[in-house]
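#structure-requests
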Amino acid sequence: MAGEKENIKNLLDRVVEAYEWTVKRLERTILFGIRLVIPNKIVSPHGFLGMLTFITFIILGVTGVLLMFYYRPSLAEAYDSVALINNEVDFGIVIRNIHYHASNLMVFLAIYHLFYQLFSSRYKIRNEVIWVTGVILGTLTIIEAYIGYDLIMNVRAVLAINIGAALTYSTPFIGPILANIVIGTGFDDLILRIYTLHVLLIPMIMIILFTLHFPRNLVFDPGMTGIIVGALFITSALFPVPLGDKYTPEFPAQVTVPEWYINPLYALLRTELDKFVMGVLLPTLFIMMFMVVPFIDRSKSMKITERPLVLGIGISGILQSIVTTVWGFYVDPDPRKNYLERIAIDPYLFFGVLILINVISFSSAYLYSKYSKKFSTPQKRVKSEPIRISQDTIEGIVYAMIIAELYVVGVSLYMYLRGDLTFALITTGLSLIIFGFISYGIRLIGSR
């Protein structure tokens, strides 16, 4: 038994040595102009949310390129080509599910990353450029996801297209110019142009911004990456993307809602007030509110309790996003009302709630800041006793996980060969999660 454990330890040591050898050589190439830092200890994923977002971006790029082989950007063929990918192309439904859920994951991670950086004051210490480019990247992430699902040309996609077209035409001065560039003269022009934006122009802009946004030292955690990507694969298998109803010009209007990240904008437009103010001006001001934070927060303190203005902006931003998203999903269930009556939102009630959220958010932030100083008392740090696990136990657990990993990978390959793509994707995700925990186990062994 002792000999087997020694062999496993030697094998793990060789893997770590091979990895370190490769990394040290790659450091001399342009690939490692930005230094990847792999933490020696288990750290919070909050420290590398940006990297997780970028990894999701890479997954979207790979799956998007594979989808491009079969997608046809025209009104007559767009929906049918997606149906072909779903029903006939080998692994097509798997790739499309991963692509769809990865887009939602990237939007979520970008928003989560923004608010974490806001509350932890990471925009300070000469990080203004990183912060501003991050806000722009977050906005582009939502736009990229929005035009991506427009390409399906189902009923739900056309709703999103109509929202974008209405905002474009309502914009003073540059609206008609933008409409001519982006929309063209009909659906065929529109699909081809937003397809170009989706697969080429916006990703290129994002890649350029990534070079300005990433710090010099990037934290990359293989363990958490495996767990997140594995969870993405399992989610993609358990929640397949519906194709929806094909759009035809004579198709009667259906009561539907867009994706969750567009719902705040949709809720604003459903107040039936001026489209430019609701759909362009207010969202732009909301984005600008976050963009100027480093320039209005002159406090030298990094503590959130000593920065009530920023705390208020953060609380208000989160609550407004949640409320408008949920409100965007709500549709009057009364079938006797016509389409416009069912989707209309009372502007007085809507903005009354938003104003109340702002009042509660900022007053709570200032009260919390004031009384947390008044009642806070210095406390002695109590050194917590770490949970001690013997080296033999950790090595045994890692050994068991390696065996489980080999078994799950074998099952996954078998399921792919059998054509059971759902179970195969689940087991692939599970193997990535196990890999993540193996990575943490090796890290624990190496730190002792």
